[in-house]
Amino acid sequence: MGKTLSEKVWDEHVVRSAPGEPDLLFIDLHLLHEVTSPQAFDGLRLANRPVRRPDLTLATEDHNVPTLDWDKPIADPVSRLQVETLRKNAADFGVRLHPLGDVEQGIVHVVGPQLGLTQPGMTIVCGDSHTSTHGAFGAIAFGIGTSEVEHVLATQTLTQARPKTMAVTVNGSLPDGVTAKDLVLTLITHTGTGGGQGYIVEYRGQAIEELSMEGRMTVCNMSIEWGAKAGLIAPDQTTFDYIEGKPEAPKGADWDAAVAHWKTLRTDDDAVFDKEIELDASTMTPFVTWGTNPGQGAPLGATIPSPDDFDEPNDKVATEKALQYMGLEAGTPLRDVKVDTVFVGSCTNGRIEDLRLAASILEGRTVAPDTRLLVVPGSVRVRLQAEAEGLDKIFIASGAEWRGAGCSMCLGMNPDQLAPGERSASTSNRNFEGRQGKGGRTHLVSVPVAAATAVRGTLSSPSDLTPIADLQEV
Amino acid sequence: MDKFTTHTGIGVPLKRSNVDTDQIIPAVYLKRVTRTGFEDGLFAAWRNDPDFVLNDPTYASGSVLVAGPDFGTGSSREHAVWALQNYGFKVVISSRFADIFRGNSGKAGLLAAQVDEKVVQRLWDWLEDHPGGEITVHLESRTVRAGAGEDAVEDSFDIDDYTRWRLLEGLDDIGITLSHDDEITAFEAGRPAWKPVTA
């Protein structure tokens, strides 16, 4: 019997396998940031252990960093200490760090791919659940806790039980204006937040193959939001074209050898998945969340559900609590929901393609008077690219705030937070209670929905906007 | 890590599903660089509500949390495990745990005991009849027990063999792996030269 893609990649990394034990897996790339690493480095110091492979380790500052005044010392002393601790640890243990102010600084999951360090067939881990992003390249990539960060630092391996395999096949093509984000939000509402638990998921089918690398990263990024161990996509020409020429991509004969191997990284025709799900992309529409977990979503054209719409007692209670927290009434059209702040950014939707898309909708339009639009590039490179293309001018002209790179309002560890009761439309990945600031209310949306919402001030898609030609006639 | 064999402590009913790690400890509390002191952030938003279970003096010294399904979803922050431990919890009982949370618990020495959803409901019912009652969790036999009389609850829980063994022995994971150092070195020697490096 043949193997699935994830089984091939897994098997290539097994250092040791013994009955009754989890496999010992070799890790090709270990990414670090300031929040989940300090206690791991402390553990190394206590045990007098070095970092085994600093040459397979990369650190960046992203969660805590300010997106304004990034050339000045961080104002919050606790955040500053955490960032300074990473700098000291990186220096003490010989780990390459891209600190605030460096041209390669940014969100760890944006930095890896843009450097070309994220490649097909690798194992990639980071103390961050959105490490699943890197699966877009055909890598097994997943988030780990701080004890495991210490384990990887010390041994360059992890003990892992072999997960089950699942295929999510998305047939057909996405309609115009419907994005990878709508696809994955639709999927999560279909499966629930626990639907992927215990599985490595392979996304496949026509709609997935037609996605750009940015779109594939958006899909894989949110694998964790339905509980999957990891999500990955078989590498193809789109993948190779994206990687070729990146700073850390293989060159010359190495490139040929690498691509020859990468082309073998496909699920065999006779391989069997433990579970399969099929979805039809052609029926998908702009999709948003109304609740307090990413599985509580609905098409933008729908109304807010009632607890009575659900059969399971747990779902009824969860819906009731979510509507109460969100300050929403069952039966209200989602398009009538007024939004205070729109956030475009994060490891889900903070790449150059996302900013181009947002700018294409905002060009010639203005942000609604009572609405704030924050545009936060995922990395310094993305910011510089956007500025080279003049996107920053479009954002500023529309009334948006153009910021520096980082995780920002996705989780509000820096000053970019919602106030209690404030409502956001956010291109990020989590709508948990208080995620974007204590008492904040989050609707997860795609980039086009975010941009259109900023213009109208209520949840909207670009089809709700007055065409630019009509605007100019007025 | 301390050995974990058995634990008896006050059971705390947390009647919610999908308790994500942002609820267990919000991001603003993650800025410490130590493994201790996270108890202040535990369920920080919910503790503002006077009716929240941890604000009931009956449960002030609770150590066995009994929660709804999909506990620990979301962020990989091990701080969620530390916050529970720093507060005094030794065991979390739920019908379904998120993978990363379960893994982090095993590494840090918090027992994540997975039971059938009906067992969670029976424990909640029992705790309602016996507020402040104690629950015993026995790792060797993988059993959970509450009470002794006619309404006693006793059932089994699931935990993978390897994690159970490590908890029972109190073993350091890194030490075990480093005993296979020669195998890691041999693997490294066979890696393709075109694999990327950061240095």
From TrEMBL, chain A:
Cofactors, names only: [4Fe-4S] cluster
UniProt-listed Pfam families: Aconitase
Note accompanying the cofactor annotation: Binds 1 [4Fe-4S] cluster per subunit.
Pathway annotation: Amino-acid biosynthesis; L-leucine biosynthesis; L-leucine from 3-methyl-2-oxobutanoate: step 2/4
Chain segments carrying region Disordered: 418-440
UniProt EC number: 4.2.1.33
Catalytic reaction annotation: (2R,3S)-3-isopropylmalate = (2S)-2-isopropylmalate
GO molecular function: 3-isopropylmalate dehydratase activity
InterPro entries in UniProt: 3-IsopropMal_deHydase_lsu (IPR004430), Acnase/IPM_dHydase_lsu_aba_1/3 (IPR015931), Acoase/IPM_deHydtase_lsu_aba (IPR001030), Aconitase_4Fe-4S_BS (IPR018136), Aconitase_4Fe-4S_dom (IPR036008), IPM_dehydratase_rel_enz (IPR050067), IPMI_cat (IPR033941)
UniProtKB keywords: 4Fe-4S, Amino-acid biosynthesis, Branched-chain amino acid biosynthesis, Iron, Iron-sulfur, Leucine biosynthesis, Lyase, Metal-binding
HAMAP family found in the cross-reference section: LeuC_type1
Record-stated family: Belongs to the aconitase/IPM isomerase family. LeuC type 1 subfamily.
Function: Catalyzes the isomerization between 2-isopropylmalate and 3-isopropylmalate, via the formation of 2-isopropylmaleate.
Description of how the protein assembles with itself and partners: Heterodimer of LeuC and LeuD.
Annotated protein name in UniProt: 3-isopropylmalate dehydratase large subunit
Species this protein is from: Nocardioides pinisoli
UniProtKB/TrEMBL annotation, chain B:
Keyword annotations: Amino-acid biosynthesis, Branched-chain amino acid biosynthesis, Leucine biosynthesis, Lyase
Function as written in the Swiss-Prot or TrEMBL entry: Catalyzes the isomerization between 2-isopropylmalate and 3-isopropylmalate, via the formation of 2-isopropylmaleate.
Keyword Iron: no
InterPro entries on file: 3-IsopropMal_deHydase_ssu, Aconitase/3IPM_dehydase_swvl, AconitaseA/IPMdHydase_ssu_swvl, IPMI_Swivel, LeuD
Originating species: Nocardioides pinisoli
GO molecular function per UniProt: 3-isopropylmalate dehydratase activity
Membership in a protein family: Belongs to the LeuD family. LeuD type 1 subfamily.
SUPFAM superfamilies: LeuD/IlvD-like (SSF52016)
Limits of the Aconitase A/isopropylmalate dehydratase small subunit swivel domain: 1-116
Protein name: 3-isopropylmalate dehydratase small subunit
Subunit annotation: Heterodimer of LeuC and LeuD.
Gene3D superfamilies listed in its UniProt record: Aconitase, domain 4
The encoding gene: leuD
EC number, as in UniProt: 4.2.1.33
Pfam families to which the protein is assigned, alphabetical: Aconitase_C
Pathway: Amino-acid biosynthesis; L-leucine biosynthesis; L-leucine from 3-methyl-2-oxobutanoate: step 2/4
Annotated catalysed reactions: (2R,3S)-3-isopropylmalate = (2S)-2-isopropylmalate
